[in-house]
Amino acid sequence: MFYKDERLALFIDGSNLYAAGKALGFDIDYKLLRQEFMRRGKLLRAFYYTALLENDEYSPIRPLVDWLHYNGYSMVTKAAKEYTDSMGRRKVKGNMDIELAVDAMELAPRLDHAVLFSGDGDFRPLVESLQRQGVRVSVVSTIRSQPPMIADELRRQADNFIELDELRDVIGRPPREPRFDQPQEQESVE
């Protein structure tokens, strides 16, 4: 349901896409993902939204954020809020829905097709608004996980639902081979 001459933008809810890929048992290769959608149309922007823990010495997502920024993604980040829940557990909150919605609305007049990588039902009004502006909307998520990662109302509102699991062979990172750290034998030259 893509046309070669249409102007595309990707809106990736980072934590939602990560959770969907993890639920399906594969990692996303973001270089392949970008190439796939460049092949499908005229890719104007590929946005990636994520919250970051600013006060941690090392954030596991920082290398990905840096790589994406360097490799053609428009990164939208903000500081995550840390809190302790009623059970005394450390929690992190970093919702990027508003930032994603604002960017999509701003870009809508220059788009033919928006691709939303999220299953969050809160995006249904955004999808509806984009459609009223003449933008076709595809949603990428999964119904194959238990429980499904896509909200039914979002899937029904979208012009096109793309099952993430069906993109596995196109955008999935090959599983890493286990490494066995064995000493290498040295050849002696005599």
TrEMBL record:
Q: Which Gene3D superfamilies match?
A: 5'-nuclease
At the top level, the lineage of the source is Bacteria
Write down the InterPro entries for this protein, in alphabetical order: LabA, NYN
Name the CDD domains for this protein: PIN_LabA (cd10911)
Question: Which Pfam families has this protein been placed in?
Answer: NYN
Q: Where is the NYN domain?
A: 7-165
The protein's name is NYN domain-containing protein
Taxonomy, top ranks, is: Bacteria, Pseudomonadati, Pseudomonadota, Alphaproteobacteria, Rhodobacterales
